[in-house]
Amino acid sequence: MTQAEVLKPLKTWSHLAGRRRKPSEYEIVSTNLHFSTDNPDAPFELDPNFPMACWYKEHRNASPLVHPDWNAFRDPDEIVYRTYNMLQDGQETYVFGLLSQFSERGHDSMLERPWAATLARLYSPARYLFHTLQMGSAYLTQMAPASTISNCAAYQTGDSLRWLTHTAYRTKELSLTFADLGFGVNERSLWEEHPAWQGWRKLVEQALVAWDWAEAFVAMNLVVRPAVEEAVLRALGQAARHNNDTLLGMLTDAQMLDAERHRRWAAALVKMALGVSDNRKVIEGWIAKWEPIADAAIDSYCASLPDVPNAAADAKAATRKFRSSLGL
Fold first, then answer.
1. Tens of pLDDT, residue by residue, the chain (328 residues)
2. Residues 6 or more apart from 151 whose CB is under 8 A from it?
3. Does 299 reside within a domain?
């Protein structure tokens, strides 16, 4: 071996050197960041049998969904923290503009009282549901076997928080016009007791204890989220427009833009996973487990939703169409 060969330095991002081009910003700041995957037997380079290490070995390393290189996953939108903030700053500017303009026009004072009562039952308690979506995404951020997957889940967590805060903001606004309808007061009891929400409670409370990282992904991103998006966003938005509540319709449209991006990265991860033949059976088994619970949640919610007669059937069909588009 010559001296030149001994002293030849590695490129700055040696794990990306095989591409023979300068790495993109996305590749530099997103790939191969999880130190806890370096040693599968001791995820944190500590005692391999301390509780957290055992948790990762059982619920991440021993997942039945397998791939030889999860780090090969790439977000199709190649979002990084900088661009995520730019993107969602624009989205928030749009939402704040909606809220401001409709407030200036006295929007809430023009709503019919029966529709306002519907919002008190079927809209403002949704902040509890959105918080569960936030929690599910945060767990996936923590447990995913590759940083490129964790990053997508982290941005999804932020989006769920935005949905929650939009709902809380509207709850306060509505309370100023309809002080006697329980806005800002009754949401917890409605979430815990009203029939429209009990299907969602069962679904999300069970999904949040799907500890295997891949089952958590399938349950949340392929079943729970599409069900919520089609029923609590799209169908509720349609009902809102039918009741002269254009503001809520436009807010749910804005949230669906986030949902479409979530579906893109979920689809890319499923496509990658299906490259391993045994994974199809695993994923479809989990879908078969979670889909009936999601269908029941859609049915119970949409049964209370006015002026959208085919809401439940349309929502369930849309969730199946999404999963079918993934080849499942």
1. 455 555 555 555 555 555 666 788 999 888 988 988 888 888 888 888 999 999 999 999 999 999 999 999 999 999 999 999 999 999 999 999 999 999 999 999 999 999 999 999 999 999 999 999 999 999 999 999 999 999 999 999 999 999 999 999 999 999 999 999 999 999 999 999 999 999 999 999 999 999 999 999 999 999 999 999 999 999 999 999 999 999 999 999 999 999 999 999 999 999 999 999 999 999 999 999 999 999 999 999 999 999 999 999 999 999 999 999 999 9
2. 30, 75, 79, 80
3. yes
What is the number of structural domains in the chain?
Answer: 1
In a domain, 133, yes or no: yes
* Residue 26 domain flag: no
**Which of these, 65, 71, 68, lies nearest to 279 by C-alpha position?**
65
**For residue 275, what is the domain's CATH number?**
1.10.620.20
Other CB atoms closer than 10 Å to residue 132's CB: what's the count? 21
Helix count and strand count (H, E) for the chain: 15, 0
- From CA 162, how far away is CA 261, in angstroms rounded? 15
Question: Domain span at residue 114?
Answer: 98-325
Question: Is residue 182 in a domain?
Answer: yes
